[in-house]
Amino acid sequence: MEKLKKILHSTMTKVISTVLVISFVLSGFFFFDFYLIQYNKIKGYWWVFQGDKALKKQDLQKAINCYERGVKLHPGHYKAMYNLANIYVVYEDYYSALKNYKKALLVKPEYEIARIDYAIILTKTYEIDSAIDEYKKVIEKRPRFLKIPFLIDTKKSYTYNKGVAYYNMGLAYRTKSLTAGLNRQISKQYLKKASESYEQAVLILDNYSTNYNLGLVNQLLKNHNQAGYYYCRAIELSPMDYEAHFNLAVLLNDMKDYKNSQLEFQKAGLLLDSKGEGSKTRYIYNVLDEVNKKIAINTDPDYYKKQAEKEELEDKSVYKSGKLVIVEPKNKKDDDLKKSFRTCANKEFFIGGK
């Protein structure tokens, strides 16, 4: 009896082992492609990880090599494709960048950041209509929101991306207005669309760039009140950037408000001079000289005396090593200089006219 049990046990063990071996061989035969895909995916993740490390070290060529190997092994790794596209943008290889953005979006169509960057590069390659279509996809998307306190808020990130899409769509429409050439009517239509896009962007982002560009478009459209309002808002948000001061000065000059134009030209000149932008500064001061002549003709003889008492911008700046340096007090709350630059000439008029 014992001998029979041993024989049965030995036989069962052999049968089970044989079945397992046959099953393994058959599974390998029938599911070879599946196992190979999983194996390549693991290798792909490893190469992507190496690419991430190289990217952190700014070793861009190594990062490209690693990402390309990783994507080849794991074609579904959309983040690697996105990083690869961004590196090609740094090298200004825009067509390679577009190819990889597109591949990432084919894998994950809801990848909004990739879509926005894809559209930005489409604009750079003058595929402006295609870029606008991509921005519209981001804007018109109706996602499901997920919010976990202190961890994730997809609604907040979606809203921000929507604002960025509106802003860049405004840039794209403004670029299209330039391509219209001498056809002023078509150019004006695109500028109006740019203005509409910027207005939506301002509602979400309300930063210097959105307000400045909205002011610029309105200035091109001859909407002086709106242009002045948004330039003033840009100046409030970032008083030490010269562009808004300069464009506001040009706007005020066109409106024949020479006194306030002079103030803004002075601010723009001082800001540029402090950065060592010599050629730009000379240009601004040449324009300022013309404004001063207009003031001399149109104002009372005591104007310069009154203006000297009112304005103390020059007194709050010093020259060091031949370069103008704006001196900022340690207590920024009491920083009279920044307050002076933040104050927008003729602000009350623009607010009333918006």
Please characterize this protein's 3D structure.
The protein is mainly alpha-helical. The strands form 2 sheets. Strands 1-2 form a two-stranded antiparallel sheet. Strands 3-4 form a two-stranded antiparallel sheet. The protein has helices at 2-30, 32-56, 60-73, 78-90, 94-107, 112-124, 128-140, 154-179, 184-204, 208-220, 224-237, 242-254, 258-274, 278-298, 303-310, 336-342, 347-353, and strands at residues 147-148, 152-153, 317-320, 323-326. The radius of gyration is 31 Å and the shape is elongated. The model is unreliable at 313-330 (pLDDT under 50). Helix 5 packs antiparallel against helix 6. The longest helix is centred in the first third of the chain and has 29 residues, at 2-30.
Give a brief description.
The protein is mainly α. It has helices at residues 2-30, 32-56, 60-73, 78-90, 94-107, 112-124, 128-140, 154-179, 184-204, 208-220, 224-237, 242-254, 258-274, 278-298, 303-310, 336-342, 347-353; strands at 147-148, 152-153, 317-320, 323-326. The protein contains 17 helices and four strands.
